[in-house]
Amino acid sequence: MGKSTKPRGAAPPPLPFADALEAGDAEALGALLLAALRARNPAVTAVADVRIAQQRGEAFTGGRSTPVYDVAATLTVRGTTKHRAFVAKVVRHGGGSERDAFRRASYANERAFYAAPDALRGRVATPTAIAAEGDDERTCLVLTDLREGSAAFPDHPELLRGGALAAAVRALARFHAAFYAKSPAAVEARSKLFPRGTFWRLDAPGARPFAPSAWPAALRWLEARDGGAGGPLRLLAARLGRAAPAIDAALRAAAPAHGTVVHGDWKAANLFFSDASVACVDFQYAGGGLGAQAVSYTHLTLPTILLV
Question: Nearest CA to 60 among 201, 210, 204, 214?
Answer without folding.
Answer: 214
